[in-house]
Design goal:
The structure is a single chain. The chain has one domain (about 35-140): TonB-dependent receptor, plug domain (Ferric Hydroxamate Uptake Protein, Chain A, domain 1, Beta Complex). It is about 25% helix and about 20% strand. The protein has 4 helices and 7 strands. The chain has helices at about 5-20, 50-55, 100-105, 120-125; strands at about 35, 60-65, 70-75, 85-90, 95, 110-115, 135-140. Strand 2 (about 60-65) and strand 3 (about 70-75) form a beta hairpin. The chain starts with a helix and ends with a strand.
């Protein structure tokens, strides 16, 4: 076999494999808001705490117990401070980043839905306080 036809055949065969291997759909990695499914998290259990509720919201991480609960948004970190806590917003009112103070402001049975904002979207809406993201809680009372 001459080198030129072999090389041509090789290029034709493997270029088809390369094209097939590189084609496909790409998954969007935007930082769009992701609302929690209202029917996915039942709030009628009186023993359900806010931390238990937030553990069930996609994209939210809850660590610790008791007075040492820490809430973060998956994939969010703030340079220089490690994992900063997100801004909590209840019925369009920013209430801070301290989970313990937020827990006393809202009852799980009053929650209608929760939306998680990440990255630039949170900072655009709520400024520097939301550099680590924002957890937007809408209550049934507001609707």
């Amino acid at each position: 076999m001459k080198p030129l036809p072999f090389l041509t055949l090789f290029i034709i065969l493997f270029s088809g494999l390369w094209v097939a291997g590189c084609s496909g759909t790409s998954k969007s990695t935007d930082n769009a808001a992701r609302p929690a499914k209202k029917d996915g998290i039942k709030t009628d259990n009186p023993a359900l705490s806010l931390s238990d509720y937030l553990r069930r919201v996609p994209g939210v991480r809850v660590s610790g117990t008791g007075d040492h609960i820490r809430v973060t948004i998956a994939g969010q970190s703030f340079t220089g401070t490690g994992e900063a806590q997100p801004l909590f917003v209840i019925d369009n009112t920013p209430v801070g980043t301290n989970y313990q103070s937020v827990e006393s402001l809202v009852s799980v049975s009053d929650i209608d839905r929760v939306k998680v904002l990440k990255g630039n979207e949170a900072s655009t809406v709520y400024g520097f306080r939301a550099a680590a993201g924002a957890i937007i809680i809408k209550t049934k009372k507001q609707n």
